[in-house]
Amino acid sequence: MKHLALPLALVSVPAVASAQPAASDEARIIVTGEGLPLPPGTPAYGSVLIDRQRLTDSASGRIESALADVAGFQQFRRSDSRSANPSAQGATLRALGGNASSRTLVLLDGVPMADPFFGYIPFNALVPDRLSVVRVTRGGGVGAFGAGAVAGTIELASATRDQLPRLGMSAFYGSGDATELSASLSPDLGSGYVSLSGRWDRGDGFQTTPRDQRVAATVPAAYDGWSTNLRAAAPLSAISEVQFRGTLFHDERTLRFRGADSLSEGQDASIRFISRGKWQVDALAYLQARDFSNVVISASSLRKSLDQRNTPSTGIGGKIELRPPVGSAHLLRIGADTRFASGDMYEDAYNGAGAVTFRRHAGGQQRTTGFFVEDDWTRGRLVLTGGMRADHWTIDNGFFREVSAPTGAITPPPAIGNRSGWQFSGRAGALYRMNDAVALRAAAYSGFRLPTLNELYRPFVVFPVTTQANPALNPEKLRGAEAGIDISPAQGVSLSVTAFYNRLEDAIANVTPDPANRNMRQRENVDAIVARGLEFNASLRRGDMSLLASYAHSNSSIHAPGLPDIDGLSPAQSPRHAASGTLAWQPRYGPAVSATLRYVAKQYEDDLHVDVLPDALTVDAVARIPLGHGIAVVARGENLFDEAVITRKVTGANGVASIDLGTPRTLWIGFTVGR
Fold first, then answer.
1. Which region, left, alpha or beta, applies to residue 10 given φ > 0 means left and ψ of -120 to 50 means alpha?
2. Weakest mean pLDDT among 322-331, 464-473, 522-531, 661-670
3. DSSP codes of every residue in 406-458
4. Mean pLDDT of the region 542-551
């Protein structure tokens, strides 16, 4: 199934309100497309906001670069969505380790965005121009969002009606013969509105392979992808509205060798009902159809060694949240959510001569259904918040089948039984505003994440390492606590400090069972990953000048008494230090310029700490010159000092390290219209 064929439902919405406010028949209904207001206790969990201006001023034009403004955010590898294998783009926070699946729950207008089979995030489909704001909560446990937020929650909200130009366009040309084109049309529709947008990115890419490791088959990391998005919102009454979103995306990449091509694509649709009456309601339903394919080229024979030719998957889910009127001092939230995921993997293995040796088919299904209650109680300057969840989960119909292509012999499949269980979690927090300048906060929480279908059933190879799947993996369970202070000594000045302790039990890691054979790994539950540290965020705005800064110190370690070779070591892909700072000059009229500095400390490629990825310091910049009538010329620069960023390093049995590199110096020039 190379091309998905999910028909998007046509949503019929009235162009005018069916009811008017009682106070005045002349009152106009305003539809913004937003969700319900945030509960007053939200700041107790130490969220960080990225506003629309910052989202649209990233030098790369990609959402993952903007998210890196929050120190501690990382993907499995340091590559972005132009030069990473899509299945490795899991998001995590607080150095809790990674194995390519996302430990952070990423939501777009309340819809989980993780791939139903792999658990990766399709960052190429999350276009910054379509967004209003991003809220990043490091830790925080599982609240009314849904299961999966063991490392935190990233909530993306679509741009509101007043933020969308009626007509918007942009075009950029960059290094590596790269082009980036986007356009949007957002007319009013009666008392509501509709927004249609599209984006196309392509480029010849850059060499991810160091010069001394290149061979005749080595090619740059070319990419070619597009996404379209349709969003509509219309009133049903003076206090309620319906929102619809449909997204299509298609992304092709070539990594390292000619023929090492990957393809990811998806079709998503969601519909949401919002009521802002005495009984506030947020009801959501969504459907996702995704597919992925990938070809692995052998570094020794330079022939196809694996063709993961098809990985169709489906995600179906929904949520309903009620906020009954319980008095001005309380905001009570009660509700339920559910998510069903299913997927299959079809792949063919090849020998050095180019003949098919094995055909494999694996897959399964999983479901979580949760019930939650949460209350925020305001007592003067004090806000208390707390809630509980009960989630029932199932993992069933799992299988792995391998057939010898020459003989037809079937390898005896592993015994895979159906499993289910209940998981109870909760969280509580307090926010005390000492005065207008100082607020104290504290929180404790728990959460859980099911292993993905990929972790359970699909082995994979990243030369020269083979990682085996494990159908017996248990869910990960988080317990954490944190305390912090928020200070605003003057207008436009803010500083926040958070100290945290997180313990992720039954953490899923890629473990090397036999240190003598470092080319064979197994997904396993280790006893725990413990992360403790400090996080700092600061902002300063003075006239046209602004400074944003973020720093995270995360001291994380593995607790695995049964695995003495890794017990006490830090998890793979987990830097101890991360920092980001952006200095900007952005007057209301006239030229604007900003520069961003980012630092990531060294981290280890593997669980045994054999291969180290050195630290990296990069500088990006954006300059904008308005020409009038909503038109501006924009210049962007990534990694201006051409820092060598090593994204992967694996030392083989011969002692030679295979290395991949991240984005080198990349320059862009273009224009925008309608901003």
1. beta
2. 464-473
3. TT-PEEPPPP---EEEEEEEEEEEEEEE-SSSEEEEEEEEEEEEPPPHHHHH-
4. 96
3-state class (DSSP) for residue 13: coil
SS3 372: strand
Question: Tens digit of pLDDT for each residue in 585-635?
Answer: 999 889 999 999 999 999 999 888 999 999 999 999 999 999 998 999 999
Judge whether 431 and 376 are in contact, CB under 8 Å. no
CB < 8 Å & 24+ apart, contacts of 487-491 = 487/437, 487/438, 488/436, 488/437, 488/438, 489/437
Q: Where do the DSSP E strands lie in 57-151?
A: 74-75, 91-92, 104-108, 111-112, 131-138
- On whether the pTM is more than 0.90, the answer is yes
- Asked if 467 and 510 count as a contact pair (C-beta separation under 8 A), the reply is yes
pLDDT in tens, 487-530: 999 999 999 999 999 999 999 988 887 777 777 788 899 999 99
| Calpha distance 358→351 (Å, rounded) | 9
Q: What tokens appear for 518 in the block?
A: 């470092």
- Classified as helix, coil or strand, 549 is strand
Give how far Cα 388 sits from Cα of 99, 346, 374, 385, Å.
Answer: 28, 40, 7, 11
Q: Please say whether the beta carbons of 76 and 90 come within 8 A.
A: yes
Q: What is the DSSP string of 521-533?
A: EEEEEEEEEEEEE
Residue 9: how many other CB atoms lie within 10 Å: 11
Q: Look up residue 328 and give its DSSP letter.
A: T
Lowest mean pLDDT among 7-11, 302-306, 376-380, 401-405: 7-11
For the chain, the structural domain boundaries read 42-673
- Taking alpha carbons only, the member of 94, 148, 40 closest to residue 480 is 94
Q: Which fold has domain 42-673?
A: Maltoporin; Chain A (2.40.170)
Residues with Cβ within 8 Å of 257's Cβ and at least 6 positions away in sequence, in order, are: 217, 218, 219, 297, 299, 302
Which are the contacts of 647, defined by CB distance < 8 A and separation ≥ 6? 77, 78, 79, 83, 84, 208, 613, 660, 661, 662
Rounded to an integer, what distance in angstroms lies between the CA atom of residue 623 and that of residue 669? 10
Q: For residues 347 and 262, what is the distance between their CA atoms, to the nearest angstrom? A: 13
Q: Which residues contact 486 (CB under 8 A, 6 or more apart)?
A: 43, 438, 439, 441, 494, 495, 496
CA distances from 263 to 63, 220, 249, 454 (A): 20, 16, 11, 17
Overall residue count recorded for the chain in this entry: 675
Amino acid at site 278: K
Place of tokens 């276009």: 127
- Is pLDDT of 9 > 60? no
Residue 352, Cβ neighbours under 10 Å: how many?
Answer: 12
